């Protein structure tokens, strides 16, 4: 097949997408995109929406789609050949996209149309998109003089290469370490599920014993359950070292990324990168986001310090030491002793839930919930030709009108060729064209690194992993349910601090008896979770909740401080800088834990990504805790409420201001204390 990455088929022919086609196909897509840009730039009056804004979007869509496929494969099926081809084209693609808003003729054409467009009788959505497009151009440096435009373009290209290298270092550094244990006595405390997975991992590598890696599904059980202090220390030290040494060293990269982001922000007239990023978001400024972060911290600080003290006292008592002045913990002890304290306090072991969460049941139950409350129907299709045999493919329909809203892929388990974490992304953004009344479907994906199947047993998940599935599914619904006429305002193309609301709110259904019974069935007996175990789950829900909040708040503060204050700081040591700004946020340990700044992919694995935006998780938690109170009042599975959320939030994309969309659903502004109330931190 000629140019497989440029095929416009809705059902992607994955087998044809080989590394050998990348450079040729992306090169061709770049040529065609340049021609499209030049055509719009040279457009003569009369200027219309169709021959300016729409023509530019349509001209860029093939390149966006093709490069999206390459980037996706780089994330899920990485290989030396793919990486080489991806990195060969990355500078060219980055340079091209950076050049678009810096194109003087194009900018003059769009500005001229922006002035004239008021006479065209456009819909409010198209008017909003014109305004958003012009603002995007200005933010990217469209009004800069030529020399500064050249520098802006150089910065964007450099950032693309540096952040890609950062991401590769995180993946390679994670894969470079393993721990093989041959003496089972060293593995005391580990649950059977973790031991079986480690045994299977060793067998796949042709090794005797039990093999542990820095993948979350391997790392977390060790840190939570292993009785061996030495083993936990070794694994913790290896994880903390990702991105800090050897050939996978990110330390200089982070400095370069931060400095380039700062330089770019100042080029376009902003004081710092955080202001540049947040200006058109709900927060409106970096300082406002930081104030929001700090305000929540101050409300939970006392409880956070109390929880840390209680954990130290618990360990001291367990070891027969005086509890009046308990010794500090080591960082590799915290998860282990916290789990012991939780068990002692609530008689609750999360592993007891695992048999009730076979992944197939969790997913089918989640789809049942989506059908009931959002009016959706999901059907699995054949997936014989995808990027990996474990990947599933589904169609999503409106359950009443039978309209095909979109389709998606699901890839849930870890591989060495796959980056860590969990994420949602999209290949195609559809739209509804009011001129013909037809809706083109969306195409998306959800990925994770969840506990895989072991032997003949299905993949049995922790409750936290179930939350992860619901979280990413929320993002996916936001994309697939988008019903906006302008593709670039549809789906998840919303301000960053609003994008997490649909994902965060979905996690709530993992805690309600009525919805849990849909997703939780014992993999052998088919029984639902016993009431006693459910009661323990709820009782333990808010265990060390202040600490959990502060952990997220610390990430948000580190992110904002780095993007507001680091470039102007006299501190040369990044670790020292982070330690200083987080001195109140970090619990005190015998061994001071180093920051995760060199392996924090959210912040540094793309030119922007979550940079100066990590606060949005907590921002959206406030929104989701508040919005879910309406479901609690009107019925957890209330179809009327669910369809209202779909119509007023999920379907609307960025067609209106997020604050208005939220108010349309809740009939009021958000309650800022909703999150702390849900977490049991305030009455």
Overall description:
- The protein is α+β, with helices and mostly antiparallel strands and 683 residues long.
- It has 4 domains: 4-143, Endopeptidase. Chain P, domain 1 (Glutathione S-transferase Yfyf (Class Pi), Chain A, domain 2, Up-down Bundle), CATH 1.20.1050; 177-241, no CATH class; 286-346 and 543-678, Orthogonal Bundle (Neurolysin, domain 3), CATH 1.10.1370.10; 354-488 and 513-524, Collagenase (Catalytic Domain).
- Helices cover 53% and strands 7% of the residues.
- It has helices spanning 22-41, 53-76, 80-99, 104-116, 124-139, 146-175, 192-204, 216-225, 229-240, 251-267, 273-278, 286-318, 334-346, 359-374, 463-480, 501-506, 513-519, 531-540, 545-564, 574-581, 601-604, 615-634, 639-650, 658-666, 674-678, and strands at 179-181, 210-212, 376-381, 392-398, 404-411, 423-428, 431-433, 438-440, 442-447.
- It has a 5-stranded mixed beta sheet. A two-stranded antiparallel ribbon has the order 1-2.
- α1 (22-41) packs antiparallel against α2 (53-76) and α14 (359-374) crosses α17 (513-519).
- It starts with 21 loop residues before the first helix and ends in a 5-residue tail after the last helix.
